Amino acid sequence: MSKSAFQALVAQVTSAIGGQPVEPALGAILNARFPPDGPVYLAIEAACHAAIAEGWMCEREHGGIRYGRVIEAGEALAGYSVDVVRMTDVAGPHHRHPGGEIDMIMPVTPGARFDGAPHGWLVYGPDSAHRPTVTGGESLVLYLLPGGQIDFARAK
Prior knowledge:
Blueprint (H helix, E strand, L loop, with lengths): L2 H15 L7 H9 L5 H16 L5 E3 L2 E7 L8 E12 L3 E3 L3 E7 L5 E2 L5 E5 L3 E3 L2 E14 L10
Antiparallel strand pairs: 1-2, 2-3, 3-9, 4-8, 5-7, 5-9, 6-9
């Protein structure tokens, strides 16, 4: 799995949602258009596992969380960046999403949840914040961030 092939897979999603508001309702649109049992979702999920096995995805580790920015924000992905994390029963660092955050949740352990959400898509709107949490086992989460924006500064 090359980075360019991975980018082409993700571009199928970002080209479909480019220009739409990043708000919770977008999660329902993504779950309908790219369901967890659909070919695009499954191809991205398989590509994530292959890239991790090859060592170029989730190559960093801190606090039991493996992570990494896979693709910087740019025109090829309608202005989104792509990050992927691998978490097992852990809460990550609190952060804010200036432009929102789109999460593709890929449980490795059946039934694992990300922020209480199952296998599928979860969307946080602009200026939302959270401490990303995986419960019930291990999960991969792919983050699409408008403009690559994320703020780990201490919450007020």
